[in-house]
Design a protein that fits this description.
heterodimer; A: 350 residues; alpha/beta; Rossmann fold; four-stranded antiparallel β-sheet; 12 strands; 29% helix; disordered C terminus; B: 324 residues; mainly alpha; MetI-like fold; two-stranded antiparallel ribbon; 12 helices; 2 strands; 1% strand
Amino acid sequence: MTDDASPLLAVEGLTTAFDTDEGELVAVDGIDFTVEAGETVCLVGESGSGKTVATESITRLIGSPPGRIEGSVRYRGRDLLEMPEPELRTIRGYDIAHVFQNPQEAMNHCYTVGWQIVEALQIHEDVPDAEARGRAIDLLDRVGIANPSARFEEYPHQLSGGQKQRAMIAMALVGDPDLLIADEPTTALDVTVQAQILSLLDELQSEFDMGVLFVTHDLGVVAQIADRIVVMYAGKVMERGDVLDIFERPAHPYTRRLLECIPEVGGSRKGGIPGTLPDPHDPPAGCRFAPRCSHAVEACRTGGQPAEHAVNPGQHASCVHYRSDMDRSVLRDGSREEQPAAGGVSPEDE
Amino acid sequence: MGFGTYVTARVMWAAVVSLIIVTITFLLLAAAPNPEIQRAATQAALQGGDPAEAAERARELRGLDEPIHVRYMDYLQSIYTLDWGWADSRSQPVTTALAEGLYYTAQYSVPWTILTILLGPLVGVYSAANMYSWKDHLATGFAFFGYAIPNFFFGIILLLMFGVWLEVIPVVYDTSVPVFSLANAIQLSIPVFVLVTGSIGAVMRVSRNESAEFQHADFMKTAKAKGVSPLRAYAYHVMRPTLVPLSTTLVGQLLALFLGSSLLVEVVFGIPGLGRVTYNALIAQDTNLVLGSTLAFTFVAVVGNLIEDLVFTVLDPRISYDDR
């Protein structure tokens, strides 16, 4: 089954839709991305862009129904969307682990922290209680929780938010996972704790050689940890590329506006993005971002989301202005100087 | 304060509550006219004696001429040593009469309580897991039916159907069959069924609505992401937190039914249990026995509330023992 040439995780044409009273809501609309072993891929976008739904579709944490998940999600060559539920359960929490946004709510308040870590371990491995306890305490120690054997006996409400998120990370590590999916793991924490958790994840990634799929709307976090970036907007991928390329030479108008939202030292901030996300029940006919885009032309408003055009090697933007017959100079609006692509790669090379 | 200290304090509080109740009954009795003294006075007057003297003698005979604090201490002593006096209407000690009643009450109360505690939360959580499906609607309909229909009326209908028409159960409870026998199980099945339908509705509804909240909680997503199977997730991650709010409703529900409906059901099915003993004592104006059964029910309620509080603190680790 395992194919060495295939990436750790390959998502193709992933579509997740929900039936609602107002009709079908397509939260994620045919997105592709890959995560290789040992690298960190950041899914970036504003709230409501479908990032969380996309990550929770990978191991089908979203029930279907209510959701309808289509496309293919290949983990080491095996399609998780086709896999029977019992087989998928052996992968969840063991090979592919999740860390969620809100540590306050992510643990069951009726059980001790230790019980919940041991549960995760004993579901996948037939280990005696004493050994499981020892391993759980080791993991708590590893994620930087002081006095782990005392914390093992405590209930979630006795831990601080940062400690809880550390304990959640310890729980995710029980099976030495190959892929860690972290869904805004630092959003609910205060800034100093946030930095500690990020550096912890960074350490653990190299120690455990995990692929990390990191969801965030915080571009400051992205700059700190990402190897590659996938920018999502309204259920579609807008742009993808290496972190340096995206930060240095953002190609898609949406990415540029997103980067402009990062406050700079001294408090100046170039302003947000005017408008709001399109109605998910009735998405725009052309590019999803066209209604809010200052560069939108007639070609942007029809024909669905544009194809992803190569901008640089490894960097692609889903924007009609990068089509070979379009003039991309219109994108130069001065707010961020566009650099000519190194080596003069022509847009349709790849 | 640790858990042990809390339990000790709570048990002592229950003892204080029972003392307060006993004191109130003493004061009520002390203030009320004693029919026996009046009877003695009437008797003396009819036979040409001095009614006042006869009343005095009767009072002396019963120790009522003692100062009130002495009588109070005597009363307390006899209550707590289970010397509850003589039941005139049954010509036996009050405690014996109550024990005989309890013997029959327990035979149907233990099964319906256990069934309610076991089935109520299970059906409720199952209902929540299948919310708005036909299974949920069926369970909801059953819950409302059981909750709405008066127990004694439902009992009469079932007795008519199974006792009179189908003749599968005796119309009047047969006390001669052994406790653990098929015949006893059959004749108790209908009263147990009636009481379970009466009590399970509220338990099911509370379990359903509380667990509906927990089955969509973030920790359920965590459990799923850990690889926990749906059955285990419901058993451990939904049922357990549901028991916390449920424990506060459950005891009250069961007690209300135990104290109220038991009597009606016993009258309908002719079971000579505690409810009937109390009812007959009231009709016969047997003061000692009425007092005895009132105290018995009161102690059940005090102990029930004690258990509820202890269970609640055991179930919810977030409860601190400090501020009580």
